[in-house]
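User: Please fill in residues for this 265-position structure.
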């Protein structure tokens, strides 16, 4: 049976342009996609990853209000540093919660020949309409995606983030089907994701995708813990230390990191 369409939410606008809610920007990002990039971290996320080091991005509709023209104006002075590979990245929070803004911003960037990268955890992804049409429009103006797979096992994914992963894996499948370049990222957390069986399963899953240019293991770190204390939120990974370099190397082996060199060559 066909699924009923999603209810459209009202998109805030100013002077005919979609308004984005920006948490912060970084002028010389070196880890959020290929090359040197201007990165905008957008506000709002539904997930509650236990290891999230940016809980201050969770709240929706707060932060600095900007149109896509205003954000572009802020990014363009750095264009001389982007070279062949660099460009702009929209990150979060979860950028797909502001998909209309992302479409407008990337459309403007592509008109100027700027490389566009979307950094997402995939939680809002659905093939239901009208959302899926928007996502397809966004893909027309997106060069590469960074997709976080938080856990390959859906039950464990829910424990770790509050949400199951079926639609996130469906996003990965869709991106593979349309052959859109992606980097897959996975946070390695002792007692949560650092288990050989799950890493092996994730490694095998990634091998089924045709579009993966890079796989990154991100060692869990505790740099955001102070934000939880400041915000009065209980930190659920208290006492868990970052993984050892041996376990990081083990995860890189099980995820076949060496096999993906698409953006390193
Ligand atoms: S998806 Fe990203 S921003 Fe959202 S809770 Fe998880 S780590 Fe934090």
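Assistant: Residues filled in for all 265 positions:
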């Amino acid at each position: 049976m066909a699924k009923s369409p999603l209810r459209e939410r009202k998109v805030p606008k100013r002077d005919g342009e979609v308004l984005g809610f920006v948490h912060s920007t970084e002028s010389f990002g070196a880890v959020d996609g290929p090359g040197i990039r201007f990165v905008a971290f957008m506000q709002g996320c539904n997930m509650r990853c236990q290891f999230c080091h940016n809980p201050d991005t969770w709240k929706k509709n707060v932060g600095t209000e900007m149109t896509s023209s205003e954000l572009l104006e802020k990014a363009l002075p750095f264009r001389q540093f982007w070279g062949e590979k660099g460009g702009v990245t929209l990150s979060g929070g979860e950028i797909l919660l502001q998909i209309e803004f992302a479409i407008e911003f990337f459309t403007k960037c592509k008109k100027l020949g700027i490389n566009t990268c979307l950094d997402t955890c995939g939680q809002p992804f659905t093939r239901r309409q009208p959302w899926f049409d928007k996502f397809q429009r966004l893909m027309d103006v997106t060069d590469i995606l960074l997709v976080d797979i938080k856990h390959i096992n859906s039950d464990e994914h829910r424990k770790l983030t509050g949400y199951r992963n079926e639609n996130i894996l469906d996003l990965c499948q869709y991106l593979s089907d349309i052959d859109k370049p992606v980097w897959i990222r996975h946070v390695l957390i002792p007692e949560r994701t650092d288990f050989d069986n799950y890493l092996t399963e994730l490694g095998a899953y990634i091998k089924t995708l045709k579009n993966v240019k890079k796989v990154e293991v991100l060692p869990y770190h505790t740099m955001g813990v102070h934000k939880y204390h400041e915000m009065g939120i209980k930190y659920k990974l208290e006492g868990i230390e970052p993984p050892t370099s041996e376990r990081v190397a083990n995860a890189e082996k099980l995820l076949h990191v060496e096999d993906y060199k698409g953006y390193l060559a």
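For context: The beta strands are 13-14, 17-29, 37-42, 64-67, 87-91, 115-120, 144-148, 182-188, 212-219.
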